[in-house]
Specification:
The complex is a heterodimer of chains A (419) and B (122). With 419 residues, chain A is of the alpha/beta class. Chain A has two domains: 43-106 and 280-372 and 401-418, Rossmann fold; 108-275, Dimethylsulfoxide Reductase, domain 2 (3-Layer(aba) Sandwich). Chain A has 18 helices and 21 strands. Chain A has helices at residues 31-36, 55-68, 82-94, 108-117, 124-130, 141-144, 148-153, 194-205, 221-232, 243-246, 252-265, 284-293, 310-313, 315-321, 334-337, 340-348, 360-364, 403-418, and strands spanning 2-5, 17-20, 25-27, 47-48, 51-52, 73-76, 98-101, 133-137, 168-173, 185-188, 215-216, 219-220, 236-241, 270-275, 299-300, 307-308, 327-330, 351-355, 367-370, 380-383, 389-392. In chain A, strands 5-4-19-18-17-6-7-15-16 form a nine-stranded mixed β-sheet. Chain A has a five-stranded parallel β-sheet with strand order 10-9-8-13-14. In chain A, strands 1-2-3 form a three-stranded antiparallel β-sheet, with no helix packed on it. The longest helix of chain A is centred in the last third of the chain and has 16 residues, at 403-418. The N and C termini of chain A lie far apart (49 Å). Chain B is of the alpha/beta class and 122 residues long. Chain B has a single domain (2-121), classed as Barwin-like endoglucanases (Beta Barrel), CATH 2.40.40. Chain B is 20% helix and 32% strand. A six-stranded mixed β-sheet of chain B has the order 2-4-3-6-1-5. Chain B is globular and about 35 Å long. The chains are: A alpha/beta (419), B alpha/beta (122).
Chain lengths: 419, 122
């Protein structure tokens, strides 16, 4: 039997997948999506210190750790649904911990830039139908969001922009990526010089080309003028940007300058800008706390009310400083993805893990609670990268509990212990 | 020995194996460095040779691969190997500097550690 599935790998959240339940095989999805919907090794049972236990025992132990901690870190949330994230905020407030999410090592600088500048954005549907110029800046969707180009931004067939020929695709990057090979124009920037290139483009578009030197960040002035003219002459342009801006020198300031360029272009024509979000619901991991308590990441509840300060409350900073005495890690793997200075602290403190798959965090976790896979074994709501909510489906049955159920039971236990 | 600017990031193989971190496939997908042809030659490397990557923040042994990169630019897929050498400072944003870290690359006979061995050594 073939059923429709909504993919829960990357931020594109493709909603046109097919899944053969008997053969356990997906169709139409990319390499990343197919891996999501394939058989893999799972965490077999809840565990305490490597010993198999029941869900109830593991949750009781997890509650005990969280309640006894002075300031636990509750981190992850990018590969789970909004319903679970909402419970995560409630739990963090109860145990007076720190809530942080995967954007912290991904698009957190974008959040800071948006606080300063706002985000002139559009939906992927709008971009597919209207964008005659698309710029990929510091992102490589052919490897990170493989169907993005086909569905929305490169070869997509839109209402007004009918095909690939009607769409000009530009890639700005430090290396010639797979996406760059698909582009009509490739602009190679020296690593760490994006900010200067944005400033140069702003100067040219504002009519001050005379102040721009012959070369900026490894890009010739002629090429910059060509890029600026192409952007200014677009009917509807879209910039998609990635971690090339947020993880390199300048971080949030790079994104701020990119948004300022888009604001300027909107004086002449229509332009939008969107971050390429990585995990399928990393957008929700920021949106849900924003509607629950006003902030998107690095939120401390130790005083009983939410405070936002990334320099102090982001997971990497908390761990590097040794400012937490326990951690709950859900739907992510910081042991694989944090710098080693931060991982060191995770090896020293009690760690609770909630995840469908064994990963490097499993190796340091004291309490391991396996969970169902959203989009396959459990349903819920996720925000696509353009903040459009999409319902992800349950297509097969499982014995595993969903994150939502695990967190509901955990909150009950925490309430019991706290009285 | 060559000086490079190191960047890290997603690849298709890293993404496709990210939910199977304790497997050989994931190990293969994240334990290498891509170097430009010039730098690869300068180090006298053959495909599959091992190199030691050193930064101000740590060092790691990985396999070497030739790639279409400008001279002086190097790439390691995101993950535990890259994270031995990235800059953990966040400049107040919470975000470590995963891209644009100065590194020195040299040929080595040392073995590439498994992900478990890497974790034990931290």
């Amino acid at each position: 039997m073939e059923v429709n599935v909504v993919c829960t790998f990357c931020g594109s959240v493709c909603d046109d997948g097919l899944f053969d339940v008997e053969k356990f095989r997906s169709k139409r999805l990319c390499k990343l999506g197919s891996s999501k919907f394939s058989k893999k090794e799972r965490i077999k049972s809840p565990m305490i210190d490597g010993k198999e236990v029941s869900y109830e025992e593991a949750i009781a132990k997890a509650a005990e750790i969280l309640v006894n901690a002075k300031r636990p870190l509750l981190y992850g949330w990018a590969s789970t649904v909004n319903e679970a994230i909402r419970l995560g905020i409630i739990l963090t407030e109860k145990v007076r911990g720190v809530y942080d999410q995967c954007a912290s090592v991904c698009h957190a600088p974008s959040i800071l830039a948006v606080i300063e500048e706002g985000l002139p954005a559009g939906t992927l549907g709008c971009i597919k139908n209207r964008a005659d110029v698309v710029v990929f800046w510091g992102c490589n969707p052919m490897e990170a969001h493989p169907r993005h180009g086909m569905r929305y931004s490169i070869s997509a067939k839109g209402l007004l922009v009918k095909d690939r020929k009607a769409r000009k695709v530009i890639v700005v990057d430090v290396r010639e990526t797979r996406t760059a090979r698909q582009a009509d124009m490739f602009v190679q920037v020296k690593p760490g010089y994006d900010y200067l290139v944005f400033s140069a483009l702003r100067a040219i578009i504002a009519g001050n080309a005379d102040v721009v030197p012959d070369e900026v960040g490894g890009v010739s002035k002629d090429k910059l003028i060509e890029l600026a003219e192409t952007m200014k002459n677009a009917k509807y342009g879209a910039v998609f940007y990635g971690l090339g801006l947020t993880q390199s020198r300048g971080r949030d300031r790079n994104v701020e300058n990119a948004i300022k360029l888009i604001q300027l272009l909107n004086r002449y024509t229509r332009w939008v800008i969107l971050p390429m979000r990585g995990h399928y619901n990393v957008t929700g991991a920021g949106e849900v706390p924003a509607w629950e308590c006003g902030y998107q990441y690095a939120i401390d509840f130790s005083r009983g009310y939410p405070r936002f300060y990334p320099n102090e409350f982001s997971a990497v900073e908390v761990l590097k400083r040794g400012d937490c005495d326990a951690a709950l890690i859900i739907a992510s793997d910081p042991v694989a993805h944090f710098p080693k200075e931060a991982v060191k602290k995770l090896k020293e403190i009690p760690v609770i893990q909630i995840d469908p798959f064994p990963n490097m965090t499993t190796l340091v976790a004291n309490v391991v609670i396996p969970s169902a896979i959203y989009g396959l074994e459990a349903e819920g709501t996720a925000y696509r990268m353009d903040v459009i909510p999409i319902r992800v489906k349950k297509v097969i049955d499982t014995e595993y509990w969903s994150d939502e159920k695990i967190l509901e039971e955990l909150i009950k236990k925490v309430d019991e212990l706290m009285g | 020995m060559v000086d490079v600017v190191l960047i890290t990031g997603r690849t298709l193989d890293q993404g496709a194996t990210v939910e199977e971190k304790l497997t050989e496939e994931y190990f293969k997908a994240v334990s290498y460095i891509e170097l430009s042809e010039e730098d690869f030659k300068a180090l006298g490397l053959q495909e599959g040779d091992r190199v030691k990557v050193k930064t101000d923040f740590g060092e790691v042994v990985v396999f070497a691969k030739k790639a279409n990169l400008p001279k002086g630019l190097a790439f390691i897929p995101m993950g535990p190997y890259a994270n031995q050498v990235v800059d953990p400072s966040t400049d107040g944003t919470g975000m470590p500097q995963f891209k644009g870290v100065k590194a020195v690359v040299e040929k080595t006979d040392e073995a590439v550690r498994s992900v478990k061995e890497l974790l034990e050594a931290i």
